[in-house]
Amino acid sequence: MKSNRMQANVRYVTNFVDEVMSYVFFPIEGEPTQWMDIRPHLPNAKAVAVIQDIRSRRSALSHGGDQALELVERIKQARLQNTKLGIVGYQLMHELPYDIMEALKKGLPNATFENLTEVYDEIQMYHSTEEVEFMKKAAKLTDIAAEGMVKATKPGATEAEIYGHTHAASLIHGGEFDFSLIASTPMSDPSMPYPFPIPSHRRIRIGDIVSTEISAGYWGYSGQLCRSIAVRKKPTKG
User: Fold this and answer.
1) What is the pLDDT of residues 20-71, one digit of tens each?
2) Cα–Cα distance between 83 and 112 in angstroms, integer?
3) DSSP of 119-161, one letter per residue?
4) CB 37 within 8 A of CB 18
5) Residue intervals in the chain for CATH 3.90.230.10
6) Rounded CA gap, 203 and 231, in Å?
């Protein structure tokens, strides 16, 4: 289970991540099943996912209860309701949401659960040749984003404009948006400890320092780059 761009573990096995929540069930035998949240995105999911059985949850109004019931049904269908089941979350949240976990325990009273998030994360530390190539493409796309950022950084431009040009540069070349932190402050009187995740409409001035941390992606793999840009004046000594 993950949310938005924190769905690396889901994407690793299915290639598709939903914008809200995704769950994947792997039986001992047979094909896996993935559930997604936003029903209108189902055609996109089926076109992108590498597994065949991908579904949207039955009710768009539920906050997870129906997904848990569907998980229970699927586990029973695989005849695994009396076994040990592994749970995988993600690095920042190793557990499932409370309502999902409670529904699983209630619906599968004879099952036991073990958290395998750390073990799963360790598996991903060993990268295939194909993964390395994707990382190289992500790094190249991040360089392209940086070029767009430098071109957009000039007196009179807003931080928001720089932010937009940064990502447009990589997106039109097939990149994915990961994140950007971009902010500016006068070098003569700095007041910014770290760049901001939400850009402001402050206009860039001569003598500013624009501090950034940007990341463009390629099919779930990311590049990352940190740069500071001095606007038409040499950087002051720290």
Assistant:
1) 778 899 998 999 999 988 888 899 999 999 999 999 876 655 555 577 889 9
2) 6
3) HHHHHTTS--HHHHHHHHHHHHHHHHHHHHHHHH-STT-BHHH
4) yes
5) 129-230
6) 12
